[in-house]
Each structure stands twice: as C-alpha cells, then as structure tokens.
Amino acid sequence: MTETPTTPSTMLAPDWDAEITLTEAGRLSGRSPKTIQGFAASGTLRVKRHSPKVVMTTRRWLDDMLRAQARLAGPGRPPKPLPADYQAPPREEDISTAHNNQHRAIQEQERAMDEPDNDAGGKTWSASS
Q1: Per the domain annotation, does 58 fall within a domain?
Q2: Which residue has the higher pLDDT, 90 or 63?
Q3: Residue 68 lies in a domain
Q4: Cβ density class 81-104: b for 16+ within 10 Å, e for less
Q5: Which residues constitute the domain of residue 47?
Q6: Which of 3, 13, 49, 99 is the most exposed place for a label (fewest CB within 10 A)?
Q7: How far is residue 100 from each of residues 82, 91, 93, 109, 113, measured CA to CA in Å?
Q8: 18: Cα separation from own chain's centroid
Q9: For residue 52, is it within any domain?
Q10: Could you read off the pLDDT of 1-30 as tens digits, one per residue?
Q11: Domain count across the chain
C-alpha cells in the first residue's frame, strides 16, 4: 500500500480553535515545552486549565502570542523565527478587509451603470427639440 505524500495542497487546514497541548504548541512554534509553559504561567499565552496538570491552548491563541512577541521586540535578541511550515490562522481583519473591498467594487460597478453616457458631450437630446 502506497501512502499519499503530504504536501501543502493535500493537507487540510487545521482547526484554529481546537485545543492543543502545550507540548504541541511548542512543536508548532519551534520553542521548547518549558518555554511555552512559562508563557502560560505568566499569562502571556492564553490557556484553559482542565486540571492542574492538563493545560490546553489553541493555535489561534498561540499565534496571537507570537504576533504580540514580534511587535514588542525591542533592543536585544530578536524573537525566534517561526518554522518554515507554520501557517497563521485567518485574521478577522483580513476577512473584513476582503469583504469591504468586494463591497466597494460592487458600489463602483453600480455607480458606473448609473452615470449618464458622456458621448453626447453632457447634453441630453429629446425628440421634441
């Protein structure tokens, strides 16, 4: 039995709001599990505690923390780059921007249809003239 190679085109998009372990979050972000646990303990990474030993986060919360770290990078060592296969979740801003652009295009089409034809040089002709 042959396996289908896993390529970006054959992989399904992950569920960004599904819970993942801190170990999985560390693997996804390229950081050690201890570092991720430290972010969770300090409140930098949003987590859900199912019990004292079972702590979960989501890919979306992990991405939010990584983006915040990149924005806060000041003098000193820059934040560690993300792995090459890292996929960021779709952002609400991206979705609303695409919707707004589509809405503007429709409005421009409607305006173009409503404008009078400029072939007459701005004059309107009627049969009674």
Answers
A1: yes
A2: 63
A3: yes
A4: ebeeeeeebeeeeeeeeeeeeeee
A5: 19-72
A6: 3
A7: 30, 14, 10, 14, 20
A8: 15
A9: yes
A10: 455 555 555 567 778 888 999 999 999 888
A11: 1
